[in-house]
C-alpha cells in the first residue's frame, strides 16, 4: 500500500471525530447551562445529555469503519482512498455538528417548558434520526467507492464531490430547522402537533437534495467516460445542493417563526411556504439534470 494511502484512513476517522467532538461540546455546554438554571432537573438533563452524546457518536463510528475498510483493502489507488475518506468525513461534519446543535435546542425547550419534556425528547430523537441519514449516505458511498474494482481514481473523487458537500448542506439546514422547531414547541406547546407535522414534512423535502446527490454519485461510479466529466457532474450537484439546502432551510425556519407569531394565519403561511420551496427545489433538479447531461 502506498504511504499516502495510510494517510486517508487516518483523515477519514480523525476529521469525522473533529465534527463529532464539536457537536458533543455544543450539547454538553448547553446541558451545563440549563442545569445551572434549573438544578431541580439536573438528573433529567444529565440523562438527555448522555443519550444525545451517544446519538452524535454514531457519525464517528462510521468514520472508524471506513478507516478499517481502507486499511484492509490492498492496492487501492490513492484517489479511491481520498474519495472514500471525503465521503464519510464531511458526512460526519453535517451530522456531528448539527445533531449536537438540535439536541442543545431540545434542552433549551425542555428547560423553558418542563411539562412537555417527554414529547420534546421523543421529537428530538426523531429529528436526530433524520439528520443521521446524511451520515449513513456517506457510509454507503464510501463502501461503494472502496468496493468498485478497477475504478478510475478521478471517478472516486467525483463521486465524493457529488455526495459529501451536498450532504453537508442538507444536514446543516435540516439540523438548523429542527432546532428552530423544537424551540417554538417549547414556547408554544398548544401547537406542538402542528409544528411536528410541518417539521417532518419539510425535513423530507430538504432530503431531496441529498437523494439527488446519491443518485449522481452512483451514476459517476458506473461511468466510463472522461474523468473530467465525473468531476464536473460532482460539482454540478454539489453546488445545487448548497443552494437548495440553504434556501429551503432558511425559508422553512422563517415560516415556523411566522406561524409561531401569528397562528391564525398558519394556513396561508403554509400555502406560500409550499410554493416557495417548490421554486427553490428547481435549483437542485437543474443541478441533477446538468450532472446527467455531463455524464451523458
How is this structure best described in words?
This protein is mostly helical and 296 residues long. The radius of gyration is 20 Å and the shape is flat. Helices cover 89% and strands 0% of the residues. The mean pLDDT is 79.
- Poorly predicted sequence stretches spanning 5 or more consecutive residues: none
| Biggest β-sheet strands, sense, barrel | none
Number of strand segments: 0
Order of helices and strands: HHHHHHHH
Mean pLDDT comes to 79
Label the structural class.
Answer: mainly alpha
Q: How much of the sequence is in beta strands?
A: under 5%
Percent of residues in helices comes to over 70%
Q: Judging from the principal axes of the Cα atoms, what is the shape?
A: flat
Ends: how far apart? 34 Å
Count of separate DSSP helical elements: 8
Radius of gyration from the alpha-carbon trace, in angstroms = 20 Å
Q: Oligomerization state of this entry?
A: single chain
In short:
The chain is an all-alpha fold and 296 residues long.
Observed structural traits:
296 residues; mainly alpha
Amino acid at each position: 500500500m502506498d504511504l499516502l494511502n495510510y494517510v486517508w484512513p487516518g483523515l477519514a476517522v480523525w476529521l469525522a471525530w473533529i465534527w463529532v467532538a464539536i457537536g458533543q461540546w455544543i450539547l454538553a455546554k448547553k446541558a451545563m447551562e440549563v442545569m445551572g438554571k434549573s438544578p431541580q432537573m439536573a438528573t433529567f438533563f444529565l440523562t438527555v445529555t448522555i443519550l444525545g452524546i451517544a446519538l452524535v457518536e454514531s457519525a464517528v463510528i462510521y468514520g472508524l469503519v471506513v478507516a478499517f475498510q481502507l486499511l484492509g483493502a490492498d492496492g487501492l489507488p490513492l484517489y479511491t482512498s481520498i474519495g472514500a475518506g471525503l465521503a464519510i468525513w464531511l458526512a460526519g461534519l453535517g451530522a456531528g455538528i448539527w445533531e449536537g446543535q438540535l439536541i442543545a435546542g431540545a434542552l433549551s425547550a425542555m428547560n423553558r417548558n418542563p411539562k412537555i419534556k417527554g414529547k420534546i425528547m421523543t421529537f428530538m430523537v426523531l429529528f436526530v434520526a433524520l439528520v443521521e441519514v446524511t451520515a449513513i449516505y456517506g457510509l454507503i458511498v464510501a463502501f461503494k467507492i472502496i468496493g468498485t474494482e478497477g475504478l478510475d481514481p478521478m471517478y472516486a473523487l467525483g463521486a465524493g464531490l457529488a455526495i459529501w458537500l451536498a450532504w453537508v448542506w442538507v444536514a446543516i439546514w435540516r439540523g438548523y430547522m429542527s432546532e428552530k422547531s423544537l424551540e417554538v414547541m417549547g414556547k408554544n406547546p398548544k401547537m406542538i402537533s402542528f409544528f411536528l407535522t410541518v417539521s417532518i414534512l419539510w425535513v423530507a423535502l430538504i432530503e431531496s437534495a441529498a437523494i439527488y446527490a446519491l443518485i449522481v454519485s452512483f451514476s459517476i461510479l458506473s461511468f466510463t467516460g472522461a474523468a473530467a466529466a465525473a468531476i464536473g457532474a460532482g460539482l454540478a450537484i454539489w453546488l445545487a445542493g448548497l443552494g437548495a439546502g440553504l434556501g429551503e432551510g432558511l425559508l422553512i425556519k422563517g415560516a415556523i417563526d411566522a406561524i409561531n407569531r401569528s397562528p391564525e394565519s398558519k394556513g396561508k403561511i403554509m400555502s406560500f411556504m409550499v410554493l416557495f420551496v417548490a421554486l427553490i427545489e428547481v435549483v437542485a433538479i437543474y443541478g441533477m439534470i446538468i450532472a446527467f447531461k455531463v455524464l451523458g
